[in-house]
Design a protein that fits this description.
215 residues, seven-stranded mixed beta sheet, 17 strands, 22% helix, binds zinc ion
Amino acid sequence: MKLLMMQKALGPLQTNAIVIYDEDSKQAIAIDPSFQPEPLIEWAEQEGATISQIWITHGHPDHTGGVPALLRALSNSPQILISQEAYEMTQRQGKAFYGLALEPFPEPSRFIEHGDKLGFSGVDEEDFIAEVRFAPGHAPGSVVFYVPETGMAVVGDVIFLEGIGRWDFEGGDLALLRKSIREQVFTLPDETVLLPGHGPATSVAWEKAHNPYMQ
Ligand SMILES: [Zn+2]
């Protein structure tokens, strides 16, 4: 296995879609396809990659809205992994978002849980790629995907470069968000690169020292 991780900013809020890619098997996992996932589809076609799974960090439409379009464009049927609370949030969404039609989020393949070890075959200890860490506070059922082999973590809207996620949306809670960051992000190795849902990458060490919300 030769793992790479890439990010592409998509849609009206420039949400970072993340791809975990195994160059050996050409299997790919798309995390948070946002709106307008066409660049992901073009990348997969050019690369000859198979997007075999879609993982979701949390249920906000700028992270989930592109899932139906991505599914339609792919000839295989990727597994869809999301926490139960995040899925429930998608079921309460409106019909439009930033002027774009919001299609119903599809039925997931399974609900992910804190501590799950995920691989290209789904939950599998043997081809382990990512550990699921629950990190609520920005949205109910928010998760972080930690990928030890690449030294990276996909953190959704939990933490940003010198910022944290908004806590004024449905189910948001500032104290809980700070607790999640302390216990689920700052416990990762200091050198871990954090890939947030918006904006540039950062690291655990940088945010411990410089994040104004966490001092
Ligand atoms: Zn969000």
